[in-house]
Amino acid sequence: MNMDLKNTDLQISNLIDEELSRQINTLEMIASENFTSKAVMEAAGSVLTNKYAEGYPGRRYYGGCESVDKIEDIARDRLNELFNCEYSNVQPHSGSQANMGVFNTFLSHGDTVMGLDLSHGGHLTHGSKVNFSGQSYNFISYQIDQKTGRVDFEQVNRLAKEFKPKLIICGGSAYPRFIEFEQFSEIAKSVGAYLMADIAHPSGLVASGLHPTPWPYCDVVTSTTHKTLRGPRGGIILMGKDFENKWGIVAPKSQRTKMVSELIDSAVMPGMQGGPLMHIIGAKAVAFKEALSPSFKEYCSQVILNAKHLSNKMIDLDYDIVSGGTDTHLILIDLSNKNLTGKYVENRLEIAGITTNKNMVPFDKKSPMITSGIRIGTPALTTRGMKESEMTKISELINNVIINIDNDAILYKIREEVKELCKEYPLNMEYQNEMS
Ligand SMILES: *Cc1c(COP(=O)(O)O)cnc(C)c1O
What we know:
By secondary structure, the chain is of the alpha/beta class. It has two domains: about 45-290, Type I PLP-dependent aspartate aminotransferase-like (Major domain) (Aspartate Aminotransferase, domain 2), CATH 3.40.640; about 295-435, Aspartate Aminotransferase, domain 1 (Alpha-Beta Complex). It contains 18 helices and 15 strands. It has helices spanning about 5-10, 10-25, 40-45, 65-85, 95-105, 130-135, 155-165, 180-190, 205, 245, 260-270, 280-290, 295-315, 340-350, 380-385, 390-405, 410-425, 430-435; strands at about 25-30, 55, 60, 85-90, 110-115, 140, 165-170, 195-200, 220-225, 235-240, 320, 330-335, 355, 355-360, 375. Strand 7 (about 165-170), helix 8 and strand 8 form a beta-alpha-beta unit. The longest helix is centred in the last third of the chain and has 23 residues, at about 295-315. The two termini are about 15 Å apart. The model is unreliable at about 430-435 (pLDDT under 50). It binds pyridoxal-5'-phosphate. The site of pyridoxal-5'-phosphate (PLP) has 14 residues, from helix 5.
């Protein structure tokens, strides 16, 4: 396939092949990763990458936008249908950019915002000191209840009353349970705060109706498109029905009063980005069409079945699962009872061909670079077609790595078993044939 690339740049071409071979021959269990379809990749690798289209459909700063205007309109229409909403913005380059766009719209620098503590499963953009969010806004973090492994709503309520945030963020990167939109909404309303849901992780499950919907509880929703939604890397911003009526008109920083939707549009472009990535917007449109199909719902329901099954099997093997299980695609394993660190287990699993990531667990005593936990997810393996019986097998493989953690020879043997399992569930036949 990469004949042109091979001739132009053998070095990069070979490294892409090397990465492809890694994807084919290992078990991808990073909860935020997935495998896009060939159709999505075709759009992402298309001539749309050549086009400058600053602005929005019908009001661009460049000529020659007839086709890309239609593409962005289709992307937005499909997205509105997918999430049952009336406003969407498909231009944010990433999930982080989507969050920045919302902050730029609703907040001024120095405003108080509440989000889930990073070490309890929140995201970098929910107030980390090394991120623009923590540097530009006064973030107050809420945490997980140690007993239940779920959001501590008593604390959320207390902090909200005490600090009067302008915005509350719900959702995170390592939260295995359904996001409690309604409970957050009651608290946000009681203090007059906007409620933003960051559904970067479960958005595919939300789209297919297998996770509760953020409407009518949330004012604004952000997401990535590349996690459970299975599209190209990117971000989106959404608002539900009647949002303009609900809020009236937001007073802007400039003299002219604008509608909320207009404010979000301009917070994204020109507020923080220039030209949109039209090849990615094209690929987003393709992914949204796929996500609207009945087979995507089947896929998502299998993702959840697999995660629940895997979680139960790990519990049977004496693993400590944060919150005691999962509602979603994601499982957080606390390794404290095994006397192992997340860093070491991630590294040893990788030698055995199982890709995961170390992750802090709530109330972790170890640093973010070491951690006491690993986070695993089922979206990518489910895309390969794996089901419950493979999850049973994988729980045994993971356990075998952990009980033989220092034994290189056994880990290499497990890697061979992993490779066999991967062969049964090819990533993509066309690529596979080319590679072998
Ligand atoms: C992944 C993630 C993001 C950001 O996504 P990027 O595309 O990597 O910037 C934002 N919020 C949450 C909760 C996430 O999990």
